[in-house]
Amino acid sequence: MNYDSMFTFANQFALTGWLILLFYPKFPKFAQVSCGLLIPVLLAIAYTGLIMANWGSGEGDFGSLSGVMTLFTQPAAVLAGWIHYLAYDLFVGAWIARTAMKEKIHYLFVLPCLPLALMFGPAGYLLFNAIRAGRTGFKIEPSS
């Protein structure tokens, strides 16, 4: 499979997870297994395989911004980085949905957080925690 095909497949696979999360309240166990475990694990396997297959084959490093910019001129590194985002953002989206249900936060408040987490990861996480803080008067405890 070439990098373009892997990119397309990974995007579609992750997007399937995000669509499942939209219906989390109807199917919480299925959504949590698929979006909080199965899809991120399979993406993590693809990520790890790309890293292992291409380790040391490109220039650049993580020691400076210019080193990272050089590293991410390599297609395999960019694809691995993208899959990294897909896996972690979906994992965070599943955490948001699970935590909202556990803390009895109405799902209408969660819905804007999910696309924000999909497109801008930490911003969706931030919005959800702002919603949590608004409900509890800023007494937030980490949720599992």
> Could you list the spans in which at least 5 consecutive residues all have pLDDT below 50?
none
The biggest beta sheet reads:
none
| Alpha-beta content class | mainly alpha
Task: Write down the overall mean pLDDT.
Answer: 90
For the secondary structure, the number of strands is: 0
**Euclidean distance between termini CA atoms:** 37 Å
Range of helix content: over 70%
Shape: globular
Share of residues in strands: under 5%
Structure summary:
The protein is mainly α and 144 residues long. Helices cover 76% and strands 0% of the residues.
Explain what you see.
The protein has 144 residues and is an all-alpha fold. It is built from 7 helices and no strands. The mean pLDDT is 90.
Name a few traits of the molecule:
144 residues; mainly alpha; 7 helices; globular
Chart the SSEs and their pairings.
Layout: H1 3-22, H2 28-54, H3 65-71, H4 75-102, H5 107-110, H6 113-120, H7 122-136
